[in-house]
Amino acid sequence: MVDFSNVEDRKKFRHTASHIMAQAVKRLWPDTKLAIGPAIDDGFYYDFDREEPFSEDDLKKIEEEMKKIVKENLPLEYYELPREEARKFMEEKGEIYKVQLIDDLPDEATISFYKQGDFTDLCKGPHVESTGEIKAFKLTSIAGAYWRGDSKNKMLQRIYGTAFPDKAQLKEHLDKIEEAKKRDHNKLGRELEYFTTVDYIGQGLPIILPKGAKTVQLMQRWIEDLEASRGCQLTKTPYFAKRDLYKISGHWDHYRDGMFVMGDKADQDDETKECFALRPMTCPFQYQVFLNRQRSYRDLPMRLTETSTLFRNEDSGEMHGLIRVRQFTISEGHYILRPDQLESEFKECLDLAKYCLDTVGLLEDCTFRFSQWDPANPKNKYEGTKEQWDLAQETMGRILDDLGVEYEIGIDEAAFYGPKLDIQYKNVFGKEDTLVTIQIDMLLAKSYGMEYVDADGEKKTPYIIHRTSLGCYERTLAYLIEKYAGWLPVWMAYEQARVIPVSDAHLDYAYEVRDQLKKQGFRVEVDDRNEKMGKKIREATKEKIQYLLVVGDQEVSDRSVAVRARFEEDLGTMSLDDFAAHLKKVVDDKVKPVV
Ligand SMILES: [Zn+2]
Ligand SMILES: [Zn+2]
Q: How far apart are CA 63 and CA 244, in angstroms?
């Protein structure tokens, strides 16, 4: 029996399920070619090469066939073959992808197979004893996936599934996914009209609609003011620059694939031609602010910040709603400092980020990752020497330990110029991305010739902290939609309250309530359509408006509103002034709804 609380056992179990799925597919459509089929976090997948696209109906057929295979209770048998025989075996089956996988194995590798009845797969295992153990499974979705994840290769069809030791656990898991789907910002955010995407504009280039734009604007104003109050200076720098700039920074050598380089590809390396690229980060632009005149130790720390739009050329397969995008806006800061200020400034950056994330309610679900370089990385992804990296990482490790930050270590996750503290967040489906990052950089200042005159009259090279305070506005908005199921905190909501007149006779008063509240800076509308009150209330609820102000005869005569508040005990009927005071407090305190 597998112990399902153990990750390795769970993987073994689900990897067996992926073999059963592949066997079923081969039985149903023998011409299908097999690529790879690993277990993943909450299930498994297999990539297939088949002319016809798989349909939802096909998934049902596959599931039926899988049930038969489970019933047949086939033992999984392990065996090895010498390279040539292994190759020949897969070649004869026409499994071209398996042949490539064999060819990629290093000379000394053991080439092993698992056989279950009429099905054999190239596989190093491990597996459970027999197919009969896979009692409960479900195929969940179909997606496109490039062979080896490379967009130059053929697009294959990936079928996702999940498997559990019994039906009850499977059901619990599927129910959780259903709940997550309801909160998925990529669905809910579109339904609520926060954003949309347009095919002919491009993937990863969302159109932020008025509702989303208002929320982003409110977050941005808050962050800019907050940063100013913490000693940051705002800059405004170009969105693109000549290749020369990125050559100094190292982006040209280490990050060119991730950049949108303008003009002819052939001209990119032609020094006689001018070549521009959109910025993937603000650092090298902001350094020019420091370089604008000579600096002394008294000028430091210099805390520069910018509400910065950035462009990153990621694979279209990676795009996801507002979370993975090709253009985004972020509050990006670069703190230029003396080495003796590193600790206190790092602390300040972490404090700022935690404050921001806590205020919007995301901090409680965040985890911390200390992202380090990989000294063995063969691709030469990193600048600097081992000594420099050791110093930067030791310093950062010490600061994190002093602050009592609990973190995981991420090897090969560092920036090319230094280690990072990444604050990670998971979307509703459990996929993790970085929300906020704070990085220590002891290298780049030197490349740009940045120096300050120290107290002893000597010229010295400063350290730099690269930091964000909230996370890019698009991604943060996505996580907020998911966290609150669309009920954003009132202070950042597009429409904070809606006035609903009982009948046309109460319209004039309804407008008056709206105008009074608007004058005080609140975002309020009237539903003046000729519809039943019940319908208006249902629709406002669907639109996630937290305060509904119903006005009828009584309210008109005593100048009050009957308040329906989504997340508070019945407030009942209040005078308009009392309601305004209440709303002001909710906004000022940035109250988080408990959804
Ligand atoms: Zn396998
Ligand atoms: Zn930077």
A: 57
